[in-house]
């Protein structure tokens, strides 16, 4: 077969040589070409090895410049060749030249000056000189060697080559990779239908010839695009060759590969079933050509494909259900955020927080989501202590600060250790710790948090320095806090923990310790004046450490415990004792029945049966004295109230004079009580133009004890009124210009 191909091409070559062809010069064998497209052709560089000729061309190269090195073409000669590819070397030996300028030469990868492969133009190769060029060539690709005379010089030359042997072609694979050689179906009217064969091995680039029913079609590559306007079966063939048929050189050719193309009317095409994600369909539907798909089903659409085929596309669409988000639980002891599968961080407390995960579900890569429930364990302690049965007990009060409250459950465990113990021996696993001695202790508090399917164990260490006196409660004081002036009482302090060998510290206000002060019990004599308060303070001291301080207030009798007299409108008033002692209210002057709501309460409502003046006594008895005082209240008819004048109130302990609250002016008062003691009371009469004044003294029962009349010659001025010799309450009534003023006096005992 090979011999037959050589014979046929030898006949074809003889035909070309005998025909008139201006592009070839006969001085060389094979002849050179004056233009690239009409050059002679060699099937390998081996055929150019030893090739001798000259360059009688009269046509300059169209490439300006000649190559990447520069140069100008004057009389360029061309030769085409192919190789098996790889590194090659071409050496040009220059002989005698007509003008003595020499030659320049090179290789192009095409005839359009677009692929400069190698060249040598500067300086020119002088007569009797030589130069070589090297290149790396693509297998089976056609290259073009050119030689040009410098300044139109014509020289004899000889070519020497290395490598670049004859390439060979492998058989052509199946068209469109279809072993059955049937291409079916192709619709009527199809355009730009692609047909192809696999490339040659090793990167070889031959020339392909495609024919359809024997007629050659355009395209000489591995692919071809054809139109089919009519129905029928068509035979498509392809072959490949190396060489240049126009120059009579065919270096290698493959056997043709054929396939049958069946062109027919195609009414419909059934596509593969398709799945649509929930988010692709909802809420607005999935747009498929002219239709909106909302539910699963088979859909049909008339379409025209890129190859100009008209047909019904039939596809079954399955609309997938929305994925149900799974619950994800996240618990951390260090507030580390949750990282979702897409790498996003979510911090803080979360309760079924939905996180969307786009394109995350297999196999369709639909959107998915998770419901994140996250909690963080933040442990703190509030150490407290107490005495239980003479034993000091410490309570760590471990708590969770800022709990998330998203359903988490906490379990606590404890390990108490001595800080100085390097072995880490656990002294107690109880929550409440009873240290044997003072010292530095460690508490490892472990919190196990359970949230859904997740569990976290968090441990936090606390260090505490336990000092018994500092942690213990304040000492207990036992004493009587209600005393009479000059009373003497004992005060007792109760230590904890049995025997105590420390120092006792007492501080007394309003009294004096008359026994040993460094003792758990001291005797105190009280010198409190009536109406003043005292105080007892106590703390222990042991090894330069003070315990907490206990404080107990001390109260004695008050001379004006019942308060000042006053008047009200109506039959309801409030008794208000200023006393700090436990006592009782009783009515001492009551023209009508009286109801005291709570006689033993210092502040209590009182109801009377009729209008008038009532007097009430507050009595607080002690062992050696008693607190007694009275207050008188005038209950008046409400009908006497004139809204134009405003509300009326009682002032200055007066039981008979009412003043308008908006008209009261202290400078207008007629008489003032300046001072009183056990012997007398001093009054100041302020009003001028007085005609007469009378003073009467009554006891608490209203009996007249003394009286005195004064003329205007002795007024105004300060007047000392002698008081009764008995201790208790008396009333002094002044009548000035027929206007009465009543003052209550509490005479102190001797």
What would you say this structure looks like, in words?
The chain is mainly beta and 750 residues long. It is built from 3 helices and 62 strands. Strands 12, 14, 15, 17, 18 and 19 form a 6-stranded mixed sheet that branches. The termini are far apart.
How would the blueprint of this fold be written?
Layout: H1 2-18, E1 24-25, E2 32-33, E3 40-42, E4 52-54, E5 76-81, E6 86-97, E7 103-108, E8 116-125, E9 130-137, E10 143-149, E11 155-162, E12 182-187, E13 190-196, E14 207-212, E15 215-217, E16 223-228, E17 232-244, E18 249-253, E19 257-264, E20 268-270, E21 274-276, H2 278-281, E22 286-288, E23 291-293, E24 297-304, E25 310-319, E26 327-332, E27 338-339, E28 345-346, E29 350-361, E30 366-376, E31 379-380, E32 384-388, E33 391-395, E34 399-400, E35 409-418, E36 426-428, E37 439-451, E38 454-466, H3 468-471, E39 476-478, E40 488-494, E41 503-509, E42 511-513, E43 521-526, E44 533-542, E45 545-546, E46 550-555, E47 566-569, E48 572-576, E49 584-589, E50 594-596, E51 603-608, E52 612-621, E53 626-636, E54 648-649, E55 659-660, E56 671-676, E57 680-685, E58 692-699, E59 704-711, E60 717-722, E61 728-736, E62 739-747
Parallel strand pairs: 3-5, 12-19, 20-25, 21-25, 26-30, 47-53
Antiparallel strand pairs: 1-2, 4-11, 5-10, 6-9, 6-11, 7-8, 7-10, 13-16, 14-15, 14-17, 17-18, 17-19, 22-23, 24-25, 27-28, 29-30, 31-34, 32-33, 35-36, 35-37, 37-38, 39-40, 40-43, 41-44, 42-43, 44-45, 44-46, 48-51, 49-52, 50-51, 52-53, 54-55, 56-57, 57-60, 58-59, 58-61, 61-62
């Amino acid at each position: 077969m090979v011999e037959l191909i050589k014979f046929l091409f030898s006949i074809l070559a003889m035909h070309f040589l005998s025909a008139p062809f201006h592009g070839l010069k006969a001085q060389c064998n094979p002849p050179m070409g004056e233009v690239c497209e009409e050059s002679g052709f060699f099937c390998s560089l081996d055929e150019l090895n030893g090739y001798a000729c000259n360059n009688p061309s009269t046509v300059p190269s169209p490439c300006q410049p000649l190559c990447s090195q520069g140069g100008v073409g004057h009389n360029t000669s061309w030769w085409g060749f192919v190789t098996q590819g790889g590194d090659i070397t071409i050496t040009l030996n220059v002989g005698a030249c007509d003008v003595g300028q020499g030659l320049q030469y090179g290789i192009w990868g095409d005839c359009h000056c677009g692929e400069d492969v190698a060249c040598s133009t500067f300086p020119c190769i002088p007569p009797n000189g030589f130069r070589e060029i090297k290149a790396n060539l693509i297998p089976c690709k056609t290259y073009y060697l050119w030689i040009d005379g410098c300044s139109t010089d014509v020289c004899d030359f000889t070519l020497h080559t290395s490598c670049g042997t004859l390439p060979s072609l492998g058989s052509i694979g199946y068209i469109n990779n279809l072993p059955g050689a049937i291409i079916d179906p192709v619709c009527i009217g199809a355009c730009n239908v692609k047909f192809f064969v696999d490339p040659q091995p090793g990167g070889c680039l031959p020339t392909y010839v495609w024919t359809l029913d024997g007629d050659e079609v355009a395209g000489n590559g591995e692919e071809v695009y054809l139109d089919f306007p009519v129905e029928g079966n068509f035979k498509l063939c392809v072959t490949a060759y190396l060489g240049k048929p126009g120059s009579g050189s065919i270096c290698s050719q493959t056997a043709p590969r054929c396939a049958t193309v069946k062109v027919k009317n195609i009414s419909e095409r059934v596509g593969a079933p398709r799945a649509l994600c929930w988010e692709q369909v909802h809420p607005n539907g999935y747009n498929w050509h002219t239709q909106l798909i909302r539910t699963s089903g088979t859909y049909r659409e008339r379409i025209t494909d890129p190859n100009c085929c008209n047909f019904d596309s039939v596809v079954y669409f399955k609309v997938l259900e929305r994925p149900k988000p799974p619950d994800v639980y996240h618990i951390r002891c260090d507030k580390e955020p949750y990282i979702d599968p897409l790498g996003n961080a979510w911090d803080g407390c979360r309760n079924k927080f939905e996180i969307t995960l786009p394109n995350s579900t297999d196999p369709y890569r639909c959107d998915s989501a998770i419901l994140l429930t996250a909690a963080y364990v933040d442990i703190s302690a509030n150490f407290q202590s107490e005495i239980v049965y003479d034993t000091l007990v410490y309570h760590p009060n471990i708590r969770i600060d800022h709990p998330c409250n998203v359903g988490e459950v906490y379990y606590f465990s404890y390990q108490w250790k001595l800080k100085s113990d390097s072995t880490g021996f656990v002294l107690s696993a109880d929550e409440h710790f009873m240290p044997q001695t003072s010292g530095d202790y460690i508490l490892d508090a472990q919190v196990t948090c359970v949230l859904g399917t997740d569990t976290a164990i968090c441990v936090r260490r606390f260090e505490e320095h336990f000092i018994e006196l500092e942690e213990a409660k304040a000492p207990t004081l036992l004493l009587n806090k209600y005393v009479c002036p000059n009373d003497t009482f004992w005060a007792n302090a109760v230590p904890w923990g049995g025997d105590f060998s420390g120092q006792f510290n007492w501080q007394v206000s309003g009294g004096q310790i008359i026994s040993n002060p460094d003792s758990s019990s001291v005797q105190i004599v009280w010198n409190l004046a009536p109406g003043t308060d005292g105080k007892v303070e106590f703390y222990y001291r042991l090894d330069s450490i003070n315990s907490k301080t206990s404080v107990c207030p001390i109260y004695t009798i008050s001379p004006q415990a019942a308060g000042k007299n006053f008047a009200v409108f109506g039959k309801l008033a409030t008794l208000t004792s200023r006393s700090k002692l436990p006592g009782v209210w009783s009515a001492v002057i009551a023209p009508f029945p009286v109801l005291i709501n709570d006689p033993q309460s210092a502040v209590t409502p009182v109801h009377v049966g009729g209008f008038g003046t009532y007097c009430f006594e507050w009595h607080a008895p002690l062992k050696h004295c008693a607190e007694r005082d009275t207050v008188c209240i005038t209950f008046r008819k409400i009908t006497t109230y004139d809204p134009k004048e405003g509300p009326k109130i009682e002032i200055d302990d007066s039981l008979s004079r009412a003043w308008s609250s908006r008209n009261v002016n202290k400078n207008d008062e007629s008489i003032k009580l300046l001072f009183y003691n056990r012997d007398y009371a001093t009054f100041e009469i302020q009003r001028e133009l007085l005609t007469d004044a009378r003073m009467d003294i009554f006891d608490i029962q209203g009996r007249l004890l003394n009286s005195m009349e004064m003329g205007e010659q002795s007024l105004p001025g300060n007047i000392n009124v002698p008081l009764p010799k008995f201790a208790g309450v008396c009333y002094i009534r002044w009548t000035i210009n027929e206007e009465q003023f009543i003052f209550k006096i509490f005479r102190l005992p001797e």
